Records
---
Amino acid sequence: MKTRKPTLEKISPEFGSSLRVIKNEAYIGENKPFWHFHPELELVYVNKGKGKRHIGNHLSYFNNSQLLLIGSNLPHHGFTDRLTVNGSETIVQFRPDFLGEQFFSAPEMETINNLFERAKNGLLFGIKTKQKLGQKISKLPEKKGFKKILVLLEILHSLSKTDDYTILNADGYTFETQPQDSAKIDKIFAHINDNFKEHISLDDIADEVSMTVPAFCRYFKKVTGKTFTKLVNEYRVVHATKLLSESQMSITDISYECGFNNFSHFNKLFKEFTGKSASKYRSELKLVVQ
């Protein structure tokens, strides 16, 4: 029997964040789960729901709640089929080095580093651990900045100290995690990186990877969770923040330098992604420098 190759999912954290936290409080039918992998670890907590666990070569079902930690590049499938009344699913995705290459190599982080290693086979935590940490995980999307990182480290530390878990992909059977899709998504992101200062048409980018525009749009949304336009605009805003801090260019000139051909549109998106206007962003930077 030939095993279907998993698709690389490109995780793109929200602006100003080094991790991605999602909370689903209703099943969204069009966001169909798919067989995929990514270099980020994934912490999943469902407080009330039912669904299927497909992690590596492990397959099982749950009918109430679950707490999982899935390691880097471990193929898995979406988990929740249905959330019950007052049910929610909280997902936290982060790279092993999201706090720097050496952070989790420090002696104080040894237990968390070991947790990450165990998670490469998929960990399912028991009732005691769910009761202890479930509410804290559910409230993580409400936290901002430093507090979010601090709470996540507290959660990881607790998970690293417990023996209340089951290894799911116990025999270590792995799938080939270098499918053709990896090269495809890398090519798309390289094209964005090289050309985001100019207009990138959907026709051009779809042609770059030999796809029709509708097929490309479906594919890109599936593997990134964002539309192509939104991700390109995020690239542009990130570059704008760099220019605001490192150059003396006017804000109008910066907007055009970053690929926006409409200044009011730039202002609207900048505030949407950063929570403040470009002028306020620059003035606050000056206060920090002083």
---
Amino acid sequence: MAFVLRLDRDPGAELARVLRAEVDDALRLLAVTPRDAGAFRAGIHDARRALRRCRAALRLLPPDLAIDTLVQPLRAAGRALSPLRDAQALLETLAQLQQQQPALLGSAHPALLQRLARQVRAGERKHVGGVLAATVALQTLVTTLAAWRPEVTHAQLWRGLRRGALRAARATHSAHEHADEAALHRWRRRMRDHALQLELLSGAWPLVLAGEVAERKRLARMLGHWRDLGGLQAHVRRLRSTHLGRLSRDSLLQRLRHARAVLPRDAQALAARVHAEPPRALALRVARYHEAARAGSAAPPHRGAF
């Protein structure tokens, strides 16, 4: 089911329904055996996405409603899966670069692919217990969610959207001012949360808000690619020159540095459009979409309209 609240229903019950669906989906994805390597890696990736959606949804709530018995299991599951996912992300980044920018990797690609594939397999064997730990954490969450139905209003959800948009805008400004690793990581996380929160509330006017959600997700993906390039760069830097040849390694590092340096500039250009509307105005607009939709559905059909 889509990650969208049905805004014509009780918002607390809807939020609980969405969280239960995401947690159930994550548990199903984590049940894949490691022997099916492709499905196992896809399951880890998609399960972590489900956890991110849950965390973003909880951040829409007033702080006193996002209780620790919900937040802590999500954090524990995410931490348990991180070592597995980090190694997989390097392999996926390499595949993406080979497809989109083969000249960047040049002759280093086969050697890198071989080494990274070995590293991923070793990490999966070493950290497979993380899947069990994440599963146990999520199973405790299922029990909590069965009885959880927050007393929340639509107005509180709009305020949550405003808070998320404001956090993303401030992180964008901070990344522009400082452009250090910590600021860029924070920007990526805040933008991802904001995109997911707007998606959750996009039922106010799906045809219009879907495009806005897509652009925010594109921005978050750009920043995620920047992070993954950094991980690949660090991996290449750790290689001995005998693995790629010193000139090949140094040349590849230079090309990766250049590709990574371009991404924040491109992301800032997109962010200027994403944040052209102040957070308060965005939240008010979505609230008005919702009110207009409710008023329209309550009105009798106009005869002869078609």
---
Amino acid sequence: MTQKNIFRPVIGVTLDSEEGGGFSDSPWYAIRQNYMSCLEEVGAAPVALPHLAELAETYLDMIDGLVVTGGAFDVPPAMFGEEARTDTIRLKPARTTFEAAVLRGALERDMPVLGICGGHQLLAVLAGGTLVQHIPDEVQDALEHSVSKNTENAGGRSWATHPVAIEPDSRLAGVVGTTSQHVNSSHHQSVRTVKAPMRVTALAEDGIIEAIEHTQKSFAIGVQWHPEYKQTEGDIHLLSAFCAAAEAYHNRS
């Protein structure tokens, strides 16, 4: 007697990338394992998406939801109409070109989207928003949002943490089941402004935008923190709700 396979929505997860050195002399992709394991644990089947922008629509035909991850990179200021004002910005053009293509395509299909850290920032920018290029330079009395210059490698130190206030009437509040949550923090840029139909749904005590959502899509949420670490029940609820939305997308498609 064989056990019937349980359906799992397929989630496309974007990758970071590095030039040759370290792991390989040739350019290589990178992703933390918990981006994948956290999705598997809430019932999804995660797959990695290489930076091939010409295949964005093909990938979208294969998946039920999209996670745009964080990483050691920044959204180019030119994408929100500015010139770089700091030497802390690290660009990865192939990554950004691909992620912009696949994210736009997912939004056009009303496919569930979860933007994490840099993915949250890109979601804002593609909807007409802008970014703070470097928090220490632009936000007076800012909280500690990162303990290292390279925000994906804290050198063994614990990441920064702080509370966020979540808008009570937001989809995010309904998903996580609270209007106040303590989050991890590992970023030097942040969302400055959003443009409708995107809305701000969570703020840190220093005014940094910590979450956004698209009001005209079934599930398009960006969070500045990293729920893949599952440090709170709210993080698990967010991942579970995203997985459920991906399953619903699969069924209606």
---
Amino acid sequence: MQQSITQTNALACTAFHDGRAGNARQALALAHALTLHATELVLQPRAPWRWLAPRVLPGAQHGLGPAFHARSQVAPQLAIGCGRQAALATRLLRTRGAQAVQILNPRIDPAHWDIVITPQHDRLVGSNVVHTLGSLHPVDDDWLLRAISVFPNLAMLPTPHSVLLVGGPTRAAALDDAGFSALLQQLSARARAEGGSFSAIASRRTPAAWRAAMGAVDVRVPGLRWRDTGDGANPYAGLLANADRLICTPDSVNMLSEAAATHAPLFVWQLKRVQGRNRCFIDSLLNTGRVRALDEAMTEFAATPLRETARIAATIRQRLQINP
């Protein structure tokens, strides 16, 4: 372990990522949980370093783009990375004196970093490996309160407000078009029967057929059916903050993790169709009682928010001796 970080001045912390939304969100969430003064650097990797990261080849300091090369001349106190390209960046910066925290399995010996953070379903082991239940993200009470203020119209919708978070079929989640149409019918019928609202929001993974089905939901049912930016600004944060219950497709650990960080009961659709690491993660949530499989009853239950980012930040402060 390198020398501890003291924070007599603002902690110099930089989050590194490759520009992919999931990697950026995790790196930035953790960085901002550790300090209000975190900065961000988007890497611009080129061959062959892009292909072989985080393995170190000659010239690696120049292989992640000019911005990284300039930043590496004076390493930050704390370098946080997410994804393989960022794993190379944080590994290189550690040799220049930075404390290096890597999010997600780097696929090589974790001893190249001070701390490696991975979901427990990855089953990576090591004295410096810290496991999470799901992914890191910025969702906490402050984040939810800000979202309520940004989307005030959502608070005006009739309650209870059911919100469907929509991903899409993957190799690990064999979801079908007919089942999705039936889900929309089930949830819109429930909203009508309760006198409440039903909203649904698509993601980048949502297929065109599903977006079309969302647009075909009865317009007399109050709520938003957001398919893309043609429907206006993305209301994702506001929907999470205003949901009385959440229903989520089972294909995305990130989406499920963020939904589980709210105060709303969370139901998972078509659980039997998911396998692999996603299924292991969902089973863990089921075992803790934080989620339930979606059924016709959708019986309400007490929901304790899952806030892994704050827990991991506290662990890092302790292990790296970062003063609050």
